[in-house]
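Job type: complex structure
Entries:
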Amino acid sequence: MTILIKTVSRRAIVRALAMLPALPLLRGLPDSDPDEIVEVDGWILKRSDLA
Amino acid sequence: MIFDGYEAFRAADFAPKACILGSGPAGTTIARKLSAAGIPVVVLEAGSREFSNDSQDFYRGITVGDPYFGLDVARLRFMGGSSNHWAGWCRVLDGLDFAPKAWVPDSGWPIGRADIEPFLPDVRDILDLPAFRPDVPVSDEMRWVQLIKSPAVRFADKFADELDRSRNIAVVLDTYVTELAGDGKRVTGARLWSNGRDAGSLAVDYFIVCTGGLENSRLLLWSNERTNGGVVPNAAALGRYWMEHPTFEGGNAILADYGAFEVDAVNEAFFSPTLSAMERLRILNFGIRLVETPYPGVKRIIADLACVAPDMAEWTSSQLSQNLRCAAQLHVAWEQAPLASNRIELSRTDVDHAGVPRIELHWRKSELERRTLLEGLRLFGATLARKNLGRVRIADWILSGADYPTNQETAGNHHMGGTRMGTDVTTSVVDADCKVHGMDNLYVGGSSVFCTSGQANPTTTITALACRLGEHLGKVIAN
Ligand SMILES: Cc1cc2nc3c(=O)[nH]c(=O)nc-3n(C[C@H](O)[C@H](O)[C@H](O)COP(=O)(O)OP(=O)(O)OC[C@H]3O[C@@H](n4cnc5c(N)ncnc54)[C@H](O)[C@@H]3O)c2cc1C
């Protein structure tokens, strides 16, 4: 387990965990505008930031 | 001439036409203007040349409502007033601040920014300011604004020699005006307390109250109570519509390039909304101050961003190695809604050493302000994102609607309203010339006449209004 964590980058873990709640919200939206402003966990982002 | 007490002044046989109460920025500026017009004026100053605990004690009071500073630490009671410890941040109220706004009850001034603009060159001389610069649009809805961090002129230091040499101005220290007497048309005299005892009264043709944004209301409320309405005959708004600039940390920003905006010597930049944004969102004016975040703080913000936008965070990390100055805290200060319920009252239980009731300040932030804070940060965040200038994260307590933090800046020590300017006697105390409604010879100087607070620190506008009032009175008295 420890070895596994060491070999997977922190960023990948964080991404995998943290994107879970955000993705279902965004999935299924019709051809969304990448410049659209979205608010995720207090961050004011462009939809393209979530790629 | 400067006298250390009222006895010495009386012995000098100086015959003033006007009496100014208070030697802070407002009182000193008006005195200099009257002197320039050749009008002999006496400035009665409650404190002495230096700070003293005894004098400061007269300023004690209590606040009911939201947490606020001790009223004896939010101002200074000696020659020069609160200019002895102000920070010197300067900006004139925006033109839009003077305009009535349909979505803000009781907003709008009877004068516009154009009425004080002719006095701005004087203001620059008085406050030692560089040129005022126009706003720079960031978008249709946000603008970069200039906030001058001036050398913070201490009025007593800068003008003491001039006042001392003056043949037209007599500054009388240690002379507290405990109340004004009046008959509902004119003020007939000022009751004095000097060197710890009653010092009789002074009668002159004109009185100008410049005792600060809390004390102006206190003095007039007490004078009115003692004279049964003889000093402020239309007193419905007296002490009311009191305002501050609440100031809290609103979140963080990651900036694509700190050089995208003009920053000052300590890497800070200031932003405000346009009138159309305020109208669209139905919010008040506000100022966002970008404050550079120290490096460990930057790492935390990026880790947080990685949780929601990993690519954005990776990009930011790479920027970090090129430019360490790329994250900022967002401090927000905002305009308060002018509410009659935010008011100065006289204490029923506590008086100062001269027997004058102390202040009971009733002060609460409103729902409109809470919305201004949240929508303002959203607007700023969306503006930065759309322009690819950066990304903003709004603080959790704002999003969750939690109580205001109690360990932050809280407010600006800016005391506005209480004797506001207007044409309607039910919602204002002075007219567009700062003359108390219904009184022939009573005027008010200082931010207590502000109808709305805008988001700018008040003293630049106080000084401009004082120049305007001084020149106006110079003509009135000369005729
Ligand atoms: C910590 C702090 C920082 C600040 N920073 C800024 C800033 O960066 N920018 C800004 O624009 N503003 C700032 N301010 C606010 C600024 O100090 C005030 O707006 C300004 O001093 C108000 O000027 P004034 O002449 O109306 O009143 P004051 O400066 O309060 O002067 C009133 C004078 O009247 C005297 N007095 C009071 N009662 C009586 C009486 N009954 N009889 C006779 N005399 C009396 C007092 O002793 C005092 O000298 C700050 C204030 C504080 C406390």
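Summary: Chain B touches chain A at residues 251, 303, 305-314, 377-378, 381-382, 384-386, 391-396, 399 (CB under 8 Å). Residues B 21-27, 44-47, 74-75, 77-78, 81-83, 85-89, 176-177, 210-212, 215, 219, 413-414, 446-447, 457-460, 462 surround flavin-adenine dinucleotide (CB under 6 Å).
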